[in-house]
Design goal:
five-stranded mixed β-sheet, disordered N terminus, Thrombin, subunit H, alpha+beta, 7 helices
Length: 570
């Protein structure tokens, strides 16, 4: 009877095992939960990018933050899949290990082939193949005699400092830009340039800027028409922050005044140069004056770099010098207990004239204006909007403004709206715009907030331009129009703008995207109206624009160019 089937119908003496149980291990190894998690994460990423405008309104974050979050989310998914293959797949151990290694190694393999290009912080602009060469600036011969340059003669086209003659990014030109021919603008020159985020300042056919070349922080002068280097002034200094999220090099744009060039290095060197040949007239070490200690470390290129060790100014000095009367004024800063918000020096001798304020600085530049019937220097510091007496440095008023100079920093200019109103703007989640009324009560300036809106004017690295009761700005990477009377957003436009820069030329906007495209846009509250565009240069284009007549000069951290814009008579 041993060969007889038992009552269950199963041959042999062994107990019957239901088919469901034999497949238990297989069913247990199915990654149902992981597939659901992956589908949810991928859907969230896709929807966030597709509806970034709504995400920005809801969470006050731009596309760059969404992309960074997506990268981290993808990294978490990769780790989870690797863990699932290794622990829960119930495959043979050899297959588990191979699958886990393959999943985890895949992104490293991709990064080894495609280099991420980030925009000076944690945001990633694009990926490029590792074999793509990046342009290098031509070497400078110390024996080369400087060429004679005339920066004393003024012309109607001069753009002598940061954001133009009034530091407001608005140009009243005697021509109109020809929209029909704009895309065919003539390239006068394009060439590599040293690293850094400085813009150009222009006078009498020449431009000056700052750049990093090896361990030398340089102030350079170029011919506008040819791009030929006229002179260079070099100083041993090299800045980047400890994590190198801000990239290498100087940040501030030089100022041209009365034949001299005034410039502030990223690690605290204030210098006055003879504009004719770049010879040093005087130099001030702001670190010594303010008691700032510099950390000295070695970077991946084997070069020493510096950053402020005992202050919260993480990203380097960015404030462009302001010349007023016989003074040159710069943001100060310093360690806790020895902070001076502004410093004023004799512009001819470098002698310290006054210190003003006790608020830590941020990354904007001082602006000279008459508001509430009183001339004053306006500045957004780390956590305050402030006004100062230009002659003495006495603080005239201040108003609290969120900010952290080692985090969500204030970088934008104070914009003058009228004889009694100023506008501030700021990026990051604690930012937005606010309109401030300044009232003169018997010589005392009283500030009050007219409106504050955290959803508009979220300018991270730019400043608004103002026209006919409206502001236009890059707000979290969107081009936006807002009404100045009440802070209401009129329209916003998503585009491939990133954190670029813009100028207002009469009633049209020149917008240079951070990826290197120059747009011509009508400045109108009726809606976004793009007229034309053309590609310009490589690199991350955070550097401010410079317009000299019909010549537009653009810069990134690796390349510079000059284009002749087609124009029409007004």
């Amino acid at each position: 009877m041993n060969d007889q089937a038992d009552s269950s119908g199963q041959s042999g003496a062994g107990p019957y095992v239901p088919p469901e149980t034999t497949r238990q291990g297989v069913r247990g190894g199915r990654p149902k939960k992981m597939l659901i998690v992956t589908a949810v994460v991928v859907s969230l990423i896709t929807l966030s990018i597709a509806f970034i405008s709504d995400v920005e309104d809801l969470l006050s974050v731009g596309l760059d933050i969404v992309i960074v979050s997506s990268i981290f989310g993808t990294a978490v998914l990769i780790v989870l899949w690797g863990g699932w293959f290794l622990i829960f797949s119930r495959w043979k151990w050899r297959s588990r290990i191979l699958a886990s290694i393959t999943v985890v190694a895949l992104p490293f393999a991709l990064v080894s082939i495609f280099r991420p290009i980030h925009g000076g912080d944690v945001s990633i602009i694009r990926f490029e193949p590792i074999w793509t060469s990046r342009p290098e600036p031509p070497s400078i011969s110390l024996d080369e005699a400087p060429k004679e340059v005339d920066l004393s003669t003024q012309t109607p086209h001069d753009f002598p400092m940061f954001l133009g003659g009034r530091r407001d990014g608005a140009i009243e030109a005697d021509f109109r830009i020809d929209a029909e021919q704009f895309a065919t603008a003539t390239q006068n020159w394009k060439q590599p340039i040293g690293s850094g985020w400085s813009g150009f300042a222009a006078r009498n056919g020449y431009v000056v800027t700052m750049e990093q070349r090896g361990d030398q922080e340089c102030i350079t002068c170029y011919n506008i028409e040819t791009g030929q280097l006229q002179w260079v002034q070099q100083h041993t200094a090299r800045h980047h922050d400890k994590m190198n999220l801000g990239h290498v090099g100087p940040r501030a744009t030089p100022t041209i005044f009365d034949g001299h060039v005034y410039a502030v290095g990223a690690v605290g060197s204030l210098v006055c140069l003879d504009g004719s040949d770049g010879a040093e007239v005087w130099r001030i070490d702001l670190n010594e004056l303010l008691g700032i200690e510099l950390a000295n470390e070695i970077d991946s290129d084997g070069l020493a770099f510096q950053f402020e060790q005992n202050t919260v100014l993480s990203w380097g000095r960015s404030g462009s010098p302001l010349v007023t009367g016989d003074l040159v004024v710069v943001p100060g800063g310093g360690p806790s207990g020895n902070i001076s918000t502004l410093l004023a020096f004799d512009r001819l001798t470098g002698e310290l004239r006054w210190r003003g304020g006790r608020e830590m600085i941020a990354y904007g530049s001082p602006v000279l204006a008459t508001v509430a019937g009183r001339p004053q220097i306006l500045l957004t510091a780390e956590t305050m909007v402030m006004g100062f007496d230009p002659g003495t440095g006495e603080p005239l008023w201040n108003l609290s403004r969120p900010g952290e100079s080692n985090g969500g920093a204030n970088t934008s200019q104070v914009s003058v709206v009228s004889e009694s109103h100023v506008l501030t703007s700021k990026g990051y989640p604690d930012g937005g715009g606010q309109l401030i009324k300044l009232t003169n009560e018997g010589g005392k300036i009283i500030p009050s907030i007219v409106w504050k809106n955290s959803r508009v004017l979220k300018t991270k690295l730019t400043s608004p331009v103002l026209l006919d009761g409206h502001s236009y700005c890059l707000s979290n990477g969107f081009l936006e129009c807002a009404r100045l009377s009440d802070g209401a957003r009129i329209w916003k436009r998503r585009g491939r703008f990133g954190h670029g820069q813009l100028l207002l030329v009469n009633d049209r906007i020149l917008l240079h995207s951070e990826s290197g495209t120059l747009y011509l846009i009508n400045a109108t509250p009726d809606g976004y109206e793009e007229l034309a565009s053309f590609p310009t240069i490589s690199g991350v284009c955070w550097n401010t624009l410079c317009l000299y007549g019909d010549r537009i000069l653009v810069r990134s951290e690796i390349e510079a160019a000059c284009f002749e814009l087609p124009t029409l008579s007004r």
